[in-house]
Amino acid sequence: MNFTSTEENYIKQIYHLQQEKERVNTNSLAAEMKTRPASVTDMLKKLKNKKLLQYERYRGFKLTEPGKKIALGIVRKHRLWEFFLANKLGFEWDKVHVIAEELEHVSSDELISRLDLFLGNPSFDPHGDPIPDRNGKIPQVKQLNLLSLPLSQQATVSSVTNQTGEMLDMLKHYGIGLGTVLRIIKRFDFDGSLEIRVAKQPPCIITEQVAKNVFVHYAKNTT
Amino acid sequence: MNFTSTEENYIKQIYHLQQEKERVNTNSLAAEMKTRPASVTDMLKKLKNKKLLQYERYRGFKLTEPGKKIALGIVRKHRLWEFFLANKLGFEWDKVHVIAEELEHVSSDELISRLDLFLGNPSFDPHGDPIPDRNGKIPQVKQLNLLSLPLSQQATVSSVTNQTGEMLDMLKHYGIGLGTVLRIIKRFDFDGSLEIRVAKQPPCIITEQVAKNVFVHYAKNTT
DNA sequence: AATTAAATTTAGACAAATCTAAAAATAAAT
DNA sequence: ATTTATTTTTAGATTTGTCTAAATTTAATT
Ligand SMILES: [Mn+2]
Ligand SMILES: [Mn+2]
Ligand SMILES: [Mn+2]
Ligand SMILES: [Mn+2]
Known about the structure:
Two copies of one chain form a homodimer.
Chain A: H1 5-20, H2 26-32, H3 37-49, E1 53-55, E2 61-63, H4 65-87, H5 93-103, H6 109-118, E3 144-145, E4 155-160, H7 165-174, E5 181-187, E6 194-198, E7 204-206, H8 208-211, E8 214-217
Helix pairs in contact in A: 1-4, 2-3, 4-5
The structure holds manganese (II) ion (MN) (4 copies).
Chain A binds a DNA duplex through helix 3.
């Protein structure tokens, strides 16, 4: 079956909201879609008709299995295009999302499989988010918030949740990007800020606000 | 100003029809757009309102200068994406058009200028059609129909007008592609077919029907 | 010049996606 | 257990792009 861009955007957003809350409600979806609850209700009926949504009025809703499959396909396209934009065209990570928001709706399956191959079957997008494979399987990495990283445990930056230009600016200043290796030297309980060593640079201090948006991972048996 | 995909498709198609006939008429545009004349009339009014079209009812129409600028921008995007699909993702030329038909509507200007750079600022798409530059300037090559090529004049294949899979199949069989060097050995007046030598292969015979879709160019002072 | 044919436009309707305003259902507070 | 507040849905309107059928204009024939 074929879906409109609008339907796809709704499906994808429902999927993202489901990741946080088992069941999604009308108002929060309306907020995310920057539209009115009444419009959301209309779309919910349509998606229910197409068997993509479990939905009873006033009771909240969530994607069916077919619906989730569709959602994962769109997420896959979105993140592959983001990877392309960042790694082939040289866009900064804070610019890729808006453009991928359009590219994700281009409908050719062969386009995506060729793009995937061309990019070298990447597993993570420029924000560190996992790219589902053609079957919808998502690579799982046990991530850890930088705030919870044990003292002096060396770790690699794997994703950043705040993907704005301001955050990008800040991290660039510190020399932090995806794949950057760092460790915590000292924790200041006064305001929660951290003294960290980024790669081989001299130590620096970052605020709790920055740290809570940075996720890292590390192998269990590495110092 | 911003235009819908539908508006862009109309504008582009009007541009293409104008290349053949100074003034375009409703029925031929309807045929190209696979829609009804009544729908075309509706769109003509809208484009006239937006100052993109010179149009008086029953009198035919053509793009204004601003309209032509828009059209060239869309043609540029379409052909750059076709180039990308063919030369980076490895699509055959008969598959790229349909996909580019969607990609051409992705709206970011920076995307196109970066894509252009990434592709090496190509001048021709996979069908040999010229790619307008960012100012809408089209590289002019004096092309010649293969039927009009003087006997034994060596020439290079520069474009093919019939861009179907069947034609691609046929040309592949003859070893003909864009950039292929060939010359005519003999002209058969009986049915208009041509004996040609493709590159260094043994001579072969192609029908008038094939030849009339193939365009070539050659330097004036080359044998 | 009058008639016939072809091309084009208008009138009115419809589907998709949106909105506002009002009604209905559910949840929270007294 | 009522009342009040919040959430959600319905009703009805709007915009975009499409359609069919009928009316109008232009072109072609007699
Ligand atoms: Mn989108
Ligand atoms: Mn992303
Ligand atoms: Mn198109
Ligand atoms: Mn082309």
